[in-house]
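[Meeting: bench + compute handoff]

Bench side (C.D.) handed over the final construct sequence. Compute side (W.E.) agreed to return the predicted structure before the next meeting so the bench team could plan truncations. Sequence as handed over:
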Amino acid sequence: MDKKTVRADSMERRPLQWSIVPALFKGQHLRWPRSPARDRTVVAVSGAVLVLIGWLDYITGYEFGFFIFYFIPVATSAWFVGRRSGLFMAVTSAIIWYLSDKHTNHPYSNAIFIYWEMFMRLISFLTTALTIAKIRQMLVNEMQLNERLEQALRELAEMKGAASPGNDGGGSHEQAGR
């Protein structure tokens, strides 16, 4: 054996089940059971992050855009809790952005432009929430279908094994012809 093989074989490999980040990248979080407590926690943390983003947007002024950061709580709520929560967070994000922009005294050439911008941001947030919730739903459905397919394949393999010549006592058609 060469040194690489010995070294690789002697290294202990432990799964990182305790860590949330590897679970997220492997899709294991899709199998985590949902609970009202977990959903409330995700919504509360997303809301707190949204308020923090709105406050940062306010104190930095209208010239420094925080628009992209408002998507974080929207996407998190839609992914981990669902479509309804994502839509709620999208509307809340648009309102907080509006309040932040309004209180920074952003000058507009026409008063209607602030409402137009809020509407455009609301559409962006809603689209993000709906898209992310749909992607998650499709992934969960795909995983469930895959599990059903694997179960059917196992059952087929068991049926095939039960019908083999050694297990049915009567032999197969090939042996009957001899």
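W.E. noted at the follow-up: Helices lie at 3-10, 20-26, 36-60, 71-80, 83-103, 112-162, 165-168, 173-176. C.D. will use this when planning the next construct.
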